[in-house]
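# nightly structure sweep
# worker-07 picked up a monomer target from the shared queue
# config: single-sequence mode, recycle default, output format = structure tokens
# input follows
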Amino acid sequence: MSNNREKLIKALIGVIISFSALSVLGIISAALLIPNIQGLDALIKKPEAAKTENADTDKPEQTNDGGAGKEDISISGIYTDEMIEQYTTGVLITVQNRPVSENASLDMAYIISFDDMAQRLSVITLSEKLLLSGRSIAAIYKQDGIAKLLASINKSFRLNIKYYVCADTALLAMIIDKQGGVETTPDKQEAEYMSKAMNKTIEAKTAKLTGMESMVYALDPISGEYPISMLKRRAGLVKSAVLNMRKSISKKTAIAFLSMVMTSAKTNMDISALSDIGYAVLKADEMEYKSILMPAGAEATVNADMTISIDAEKAAVLINQSLYAANGE
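# output follows
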């Protein structure tokens, strides 16, 4: 009797394991065609060791102003809160120039949202020097962590973004190298700077950069008006990476990306959310790509310490219209 019971238990365990394995494989298979959006393919649930400082920071952060607050912004054609919840997925992506395991200041930040109904990918490139309630987003990130930064961005810009991904420049450089580099269009001054910095000839107008070269191009104050020129370079690299990934992604490269991300990124997204947004971006036949820079258009003032003060209300309107305007304008 005891042997039969033991056999039955083993058989049940085998069925459960087989079912679980098939379920996980099904989810992973759906996620194998995930595009890279300067870290968007990092949207994978991390092991327990990768949780943030506080026990509750791996959960979606709730704002104390009731969420997105779209009713207070007068924009013709903007989605309702219900439509935003139904059709869009928003992610805050941060990048630091030190290992993501270290408590460091962020160096790049993006709000990325995909609108499944309009087939529109919106990318907002944020300056790390933007002041929110008197502190830069870089300082908030370093002092309080990613969850508090997400809450501050939600409150300041009247958003209700639930997800975040934290990556570092080493991970992004590896992902770019796996793609074979990214194409960009440096001007003459940028090309000269990059040629000296990398000790190789980099042509103006058209250049393909390696992962390390891309990070230098994105982070160094090479030329132009501060901070817009730097933000333009960062935004351009994201667009190039997205379009390149949509053209060239394969199961082999996707598996390599997922392997790197699972050991390097920190996120509160699970694998189901990862597969959903990845599949949505990839399957869009004629995807619209929309990019804005922040603080552009928000009446910015560069302070003596190089932090940037903005009109938060105007910034909120610009960001909400970019992410949620029904007509895409």
